Amino acid sequence: MVTIIRETETHSTFRRQRQFQIGDRVITCNRRLGNVVRVDRDEIGDYIVARLDIIRGEFAYDPWDLEKID
Hints:
It is built from one helix and five strands. The chain has a domain at 22-68. By secondary structure, the protein is mainly β. 10% of the residues lie in helices and 39% in strands. It has a five-stranded antiparallel β-sheet with strand order 4-3-2-1-5, with no helix packed on it. It is globular and about 45 Å long. Strand 2 and strand 3 (46-52) form a beta hairpin.
């Protein structure tokens, strides 16, 4: 049996870099642009809700699947 251990970053700069706020411009892991409309938490952890420019509706993403853009 193989055990997979996912290392989690606890360094403060990593947390600051991954903090999203409402209105932030982001790019998704599949290169779609959008805006953050909500930051929320469920039993699994934090997730980001973004409204993409090209697709109608809102989509939830894990924080590591989004990148802030200027």
